[in-house]
Protein 1
Amino acid sequence: MSLEGVIVPLPQLLTREDHDAAMRLFDTLVKHFEHSDPIGKGLKPVTLVRLVKNEVSDKDSFLRFFFCFIEEHLDGISKSNDFNLAQSLSRLGSFTTWTTEGTDVLRDGLVKFAKTLMDNFFLPLKALASKTPYNTPGPLSRLQLSEGGGIGTPQRLKSLRDDCLERDRHRCVVTRKFSVNEAQERFEKDGDNLKDDDGESLLPERNEMAYLEVAHIFPHSLMSLSSNSGEQKLSESKEMAHKILNMFNPTIIPLISGTDIDRPMNALTLTKDAHTLFGNFEIAFEHISDHQYKIDYANPNQFVRIIQLPVTRTLYLTPDQKIDHPSVDFLKVHHAIARILYLSGAGEYIDKFIRDMDEMEGGQVNSNGSSRIDEY
């Protein structure tokens, strides 16, 4: 799908002087506070903030967001309309001379910034990303997969599934296992002469096939609307999630708006196990070149390996490319998020949080991105 005609938000560019000064101060703050772990339970909040800064493409917008948040935390008032970055850098640049109480408040601001990223982006994205609503129930059945109509209808998802199966040659893009359902149909039609999409016999694979699912790279929950006084609009947490995702890559939100989220460029054909791992950001696609990827566990020391990785795969394309290929940019951002979740401990932290909330009577993670993480 081309970006022609798509409105991409312009980044908030800083002057070179402000950019360099903000980067230096950010790095100084992180170096000073990263050794601390005020939340515990394995999560490293300052590390999370550092990793996000390293991975986002729009660093200027991230730096403005970060320093504005810290200023609001220190002063207790909103500064979104009159924030002055130069003044903030001047004020915070002397933090090493502050009192212990002052530096504790500053450190608390970094932790709260990390929790804002967690609550509004990483937690809902990880909790719902594996929930492509196509008859694939999972352990979090209480999660609402959509707040508004218009996207994810059975008809649209069937069309997406058919397109992905055709494009991916009825095979999981990770394991290359062939579709059980498609093989059965071909057997009923052709008997022992059944062949795969490349004309090769499927008989040698008869004991190695799998049920396949369509997996969204970015889930419906990211784009679904809430009803407010009869008006369909994004919730505040969704707006924040979009703001954060735009910092990773400003082209993504325009390309998955509305029904475009169900385009093949935002989907892969996977086995159920691969779908679960991909949705949980436990496996990711590291781009090598063109449509070739190294697929591996985010945790290189992963003990339980239900899929043998790493593998290098070149994703299939239709001969005339009438069906969009999986977006390279989408998979790059998914890979970046997987790295952040693993290296910061946020992935394990979120998994434990979801398990505990799922076990609590009435506990749930809302598909609008809200959570009770502060009560955890």
Protein 2
Amino acid sequence: MEDGVGSTLRNLLKSPLGIISGGRGFKGIFSKNEQSEETEEALKEELITILDEEEGKGAVNLFEKEMIKRVLKLYETKAKEIMIPRTSVFAVNIEDDVCDIIDEIIEERYSRVPVYEKDIDNIIGVVHIKDLFAQMRKGNIDCINLRGIMKQPYFVHEYKSIDEIFLEMQKNRTHMALVIDEYGGFSGIITIEDLVEEIVGDISDEDDEYEVDEPIFRISENTYKVDGLTSISDVNELLEIELPTDVNDTIGGLLLGTLGKIPNLEEENEETNAFFDDVELKAIKVSDKRIETLLVKLKPKSFLDI
């Protein structure tokens, strides 16, 4: 097994992205034959062990090791875990005045925008700003037909693995996937940039379509400021804690569900925090619809815990 894993390691180092774009995703990187889930997991663990050893020898640097680990995690990650949720997505109604639509798109500086008809759950296409500009150069803006220039939407289920999505987006030459839930409703979007960032980390862009702050920011040794939309599984993994994941997906949703309502931070006696064993969650910024930012406070480890 060592020779096969060593060969895989060399291939991954040559091109982590190439492993995915080769056509089969993670499940095809070890062998042309189908492997059981247990075998795949064992091979993955073996590869990670070799990576750690190679890093110790100086043959692999930390960036390369982390990038390869991210590639190995792709097949486990589902669309709903990395998507931009519908509440944060800018979309336009095909029935609105075309001049108003163009003004909004230019003002918000989005390059690709979902288009819906009557209801946002009914996405009918995606319009690219370059196609709008091409039509605008031809003359009368009022005559622009959005239906004629928008692209067909690429829909994916929220539980589809992101390595499969990456492959399909490459094959179809599309830059945006529309995520739908089990009822066919619109859940959010995934861009090709989101998928690449899952491998190489955050990509800074002065014209980033959906610019956000660092989702988990360390304030002190045991206190972190966390975006409410951050998944509980990500918080658990990064902070090495065990918050419950059986009911809620996001950290903000977990605190909201525990409190039973969105807290009024201006009320002196309002309950704004909740405890989960040795972890405290405290709301510090809210909107009418959700808990936007919260603090995660960890109990300091005693000498006996270490």
Protein 3
Amino acid sequence: MSRNVLLILADAAEAKTVRRSLVDSRDGPFRVECVNRCGDAIKRLGSQGGEEIAAVVVDLSLPDSQGIETLEQLQHASPHVPILVLSHLRDEDVARLAVQRGAQDYLLQERLDGHSLARALSSMLERSAYAEALFLESQRAQVTLNSIGDAVISTDVAGNVTYLNAVAESMTGWSRLEASGRPLQEVLHIIDGESRELALNPLAMAMLHNKSVSLSANCVLIRRDGYESGIEDTAAPMHDARGQVTGAVIVFHDVSVARAMSLRMSYLAQHDFLTELPNRLLLNDRLTQAIASAQRHRTLAAVLFLDVDHFKHINDSLGHAIGDQVLQSIAQRLVACVRRSDTVSRQGGDEFVILLSEVARAEHAAFTADKILAAVSRPHRIGHQDLQVTVSVGIGVYPDDGADAEALLRNADIALFQAKAHGRSNHQFFEREMDARATAGAVARAMAR
């Protein structure tokens, strides 16, 4: 990356001092070319000879400067070269205006020291290089997109179809011969995927506003035979030699697979792969919402923290494949024990958490826990064998057992620890006077997970 700086200062002594600070800077080193007139700088930027200029430092109060107009001339001479304005306090308003008009930054000469300019230049060049890299990447992506097999349809200024390529024929179900001369809406039937309302005609919008336009998100193309596919598109006006709009062209492609994949990835990010139950992330979100709702409506919310008793023995003796099937069977029974408005989630391993979003009394949580204990304890048919499994349950109730999601889960986990200490296959409510050692052990175990 070039670090050649064009310095435009009238005062030779000041220019010498600034040049020395830049050449010797730890943020450099910079190569510095000095001129004392804006006109000379514009000529240098417009010339092909010499090393490429990477940045310009200019005092817009030079004798031959015309302020903002000079800035615009510098930008015109070399549009991609970043400009840093040096200004006196009395001219700070002009410097600020220069930044609004495209200068990268400004520094006040009264506050200038040996390092501030070098640091500002280095930062400016890094931003410029980053912006250039983003631009090149964008261009590369654009070329790639333009090279794939997109559908193309063009119309005349009246909105009648004049051309379809082969991909467009396949996606719309219309041949070029059949579609030619027909209104675009008849050939390109696009609706909003959510409202099912007819979408705005993108070509008409492009011609009306004389600029490129895109379809809104979630648009769906209905093919001639009724088949639906999600699409993304860009429409742009076409012009004759005099600049008059003569029609428009639309380029679009099928994004049905990408949209389905995006929805699937979003689902997987919030659900457990083995059981397809909500995972810890989704549970925390729903628990936070449930607490907010309970606070607004002055109701209760409960969390049931479950752990499969002696699950390690199942994995060790029967194998992880059998253990996974046991977890899937337990998950199905848990879902059957609660309301549709409740949430059953798997936290990982053999731990499950159930959110009862609205309960009138704490006893309702106990009733659900008893229902779960009975349901899970029934034999699980795995392959050709029946397996007996039990769970232990810890219960935390908002607001008494925790004012937020983290506290409520932590205290339900402590109650679970007590349920195991009481012989397993039972439920326990969280109580503040629980044995300190059991509480400390549960917290340590929770932190270890």
